[in-house]
Amino acid sequence: MTASEARRRFAAAPVARLATADGAGRPHLVPIVFAVAGDTVLSAVDDKPKRTTQLRRLRNVAENPAVALLVDHYEEDWSALWWVRADGTARVLVPGGDDAVAAVALLSERYAAYARRPPRGPVLAVAVSRWSGWRAAE
Amino acid sequence: MTASEARRRFAAAPVARLATADGAGRPHLVPIVFAVAGDTVLSAVDDKPKRTTQLRRLRNVAENPAVALLVDHYEEDWSALWWVRADGTARVLVPGGDDAVAAVALLSERYAAYARRPPRGPVLAVAVSRWSGWRAAE
Hints:
Two copies of one chain form a homodimer.
Chain A: H1 3-12, E1 16-21, E2 27-32, E3 35-37, E4 40-44, H2 49-52, H3 56-63, E5 66-73, E6 82-92, H4 98-110, H5 112-116, E7 123-135
Antiparallel strand pairs in A: 1-2, 1-5, 3-4, 4-7, 5-6, 6-7
């Protein structure tokens, strides 16, 4: 699968999984909702600031910015399987800064639940260095 | 969510995502089909032996056995969201050994595609040290 096809499939999905790792290399995994802007994947933490400072994905990114994101499609008919992955580097956007505000606007356009109640926590931006993917029918 | 509820939901899902990290802590992410036996998650590589020795999930596990596995459920109605995670340590079972043969039998019971054509590659066993999860309605 080409990088542009992988990016297109990724951007169209409603949910992805974010893998981070701490400074010792121990992986962590959570599902995220997101928006894609160019080669950046944006997601937000929808929680109170006090709790989010303890969130493992944010602690991990501070220790180790390398991350991977995955979107996959499963069916019982394995000839219909596909997945796409985005490998990159994550950072937390400056709270209240232009980039964070623009990211929340994008997320709120994409998800009705965010439109009703925008996320209040930190915004994570992943600069994707590689879009890759696989599909069974190839 | 209790550990036993997280384990139950995990075991019932058809697909999970496996996060590994290399020796430098760079995460890697792939979808897997799997079977749960007690507190072990079993998956197999369905590929030619030559190619699988180059597979990044296997290289990573050799360098760093810490892994995380995720099953998640998405709906537009966010009150129905849930996810479960298994954190643990992975190892490759001895090819052709009793454990590997039993794992392939379990996988073939669970997936029709494996029943027709059992996986030929290495079997990965993750000893789960922690089952955890979250659901929106909690």
